[in-house]
Write a structure and sequence with these properties.
Layout: H1 2-20, H2 38-41, E1 46-54, E2 59-64, E3 75-81, E4 95-103, E5 106-114
Parallel strand pairs: 3-5
Antiparallel strand pairs: 1-2, 1-4, 2-3, 4-5
Length: 116
């Protein structure tokens, strides 16, 4: 009787994970027509603060949090910008959200917007 009780208890414990994994992931009701913001279309966005802007060189100095897609820890550094017009939309001291990509070894800001 003790063996039967032990076996029954073990079966009950083992069945939990089996039933937990039996649920499918049904995304058929998901709204797929929502437009993506330009920031979310490319590399993941990172929070930062503008420290310096060099419009002549097309560069921006940002104090930023971790940049996941580059495996970069928080720091302050200079980035090139893909489009110099981005520099007209921010000022030193602004909190921003930005995306960075590795463009042939040069870290380049591909999207930049003031944080809300």
């Amino acid at each position: 009787m003790k063996t039967a009780s032990t076996c029954l208890a073990l079966l009950a414990l083992a069945a939990g994970p089996v039933f937990a994994q039996s649920h499918g992931m049904d995304h058929s009701t998901m709204q797929k027509s929502m437009p993506m913001s330009p920031m979310m279309a490319g590399a993941p966005a990172t929070d930062g603060e503008v420290r310096k802007i060099d419009k002549g060189a097309g560069k921006i100095t940002l104090k930023h949090g971790p940049i996941a897609n580059l495996g970069m820890p928080p720091m302050t550094m200079v980035f090139r910008v893909k489009d110099p017009a981005m520099l007209e939309k921010v000022a030193v001291g602004d909190k921003v959200r930005f995306a960075v990509e590795d463009d042939a070894g040069a870290y380049t800001v591909t999207a930049l917007e003031a944080a809300k």
